[in-house]
Design a protein that fits this description.
Protein name: Helix-turn-helix transcriptional regulator
CATH topology of the largest domain: Jelly Rolls
Shape: globular
Radius of gyration: 21 Å
Keywords: DNA-binding, Transcription, Transcription regulation
CATH superfamily of the largest domain: Regulatory protein AraC
CATH architecture of the largest domain: Sandwich
GO molecular function: DNA-binding transcription factor activity; sequence-specific DNA binding
């Protein structure tokens, strides 16, 4: 695999060589039925499925099937688990937010598409020239060209190719969970909301005044901070209710409700049904989606 013209010793001596890549790309090969994932993703992961089939659970989306030639975003703070079916491989791009100002501007402009569409964790197809891009990228990584120069250049090239050869609607649906008018602020919220107990603590971490914080929050998320935090809590409940074999008492304990009585009142108020009814609905919806995808 390694080309003698790469001058590997010189390359490895580069002061920007990264023995462990923290932001950039990784090429990963899986044995049959290998598992991967994170309980609270500390980066945004864009997964390019190169070979094989995969089953992925991500937040409230369970047992979604992906094939070679698909790509999907796993957003920061997501709970996700994947299983590779047979021998398989992926390229993973992991990042906080786009590095370049023009890419951020494009993401800002795409928020209008997200307002009109419902997100369903659907893949976007990898097509030329991204196929050639991923082939070259994989070849470089396999040959240990692993300095920050490579990762910075290839990440910038990826966004350039994406803007040039994919429709705005496709880009918006791929990056739906992280697109917003205030991307840096939105990234701050996504990095920190799971670390705090309430909005006041989040404001304190932001080093912004209350008025400025709430203004930026509305601009970034299109709703108030209180509404958004409630939405995240409800999404956590739906996610837990979808898990096979889960019990209501487990949901109560894991999500920090004071009692099953209080949790029952919460479900009736926010979901219009009892916890048992909600669980049946979530399990049925997940089963229907799984059959549709298989």
């Amino acid at each position: 695999m390694q080309n003698e013209l790469l001058y590997l010793e010189e390359h490895l001596s580069c002061q920007n060589y990264m023995a462990t890549v923290k932001t950039g790309f990784k090429h990963i090969e899986f044995a049959e039925n290998a598992e991967f994932g994170e309980n609270n993703a500390n980066k945004n992961y864009l997964l390019f499925f190169l070979k094989g089939d995969f089953t992925i659970n991500c937040n409230q989306f369970h047992n979604r099937i992906f094939h070679a030639g698909d790509m999907i975003l796993i957003p920061r703070s997501a709970h996700f688990k994947g299983v590779a079916k047979g021998k398989a491989s992926i390229v993973s791009m992991f990042f906080d937010s786009p590095e370049w100002y023009c890419d951020k501007l494009i993401f800002h402009s795409l928020s209008i598409f997200c307002n009109n569409e419902k997100y369903e964790f659907e893949p976007i197809k990898i097509r030329y020239p991204l196929t050639a891009f991923l082939e070259l990228l994989s070849y470089c990584i396999k040959n240990t060209m692993n300095c920050s120069h490579l990762h910075d250049l290839m990440q910038r090239e990826f966004f350039f190719l994406l803007r040039g050869f994919y429709k705005k609607q496709e880009i918006a649906m791929l990056f739906y969970p992280i697109i917003g008018k205030e991307m840096d602020f939105k990234d701050f919220v996504m990095r920190n909301y799971t670390k705090v107990s309430n909005i006041e603590q989040l404001i304190s971490l932001s080093n912004l005044g209350r008025s400025r914080f709430f203004t930026k929050f509305n601009e970034a998320f299109g709703m108030t901070a209180k509404q958004w935090m409630l939405k995240q809590k409800n999404q956590q409940i739906l996610e837990k209710m979808t898990e096979p074999g889960i019990y209501i008492k487990d949901v109560v304990e894991e999500l920090g409700f004071d009692s099953q009585v209080y949790f029952s009142r919460y479900c009736k108020h926010h979901f219009g049904c009892t916890p048992s009814q909600l669980m049946k609905r979530c399990q049925a919806d997940n089963k229907a989606i799984r059959h549709t995808k298989s």
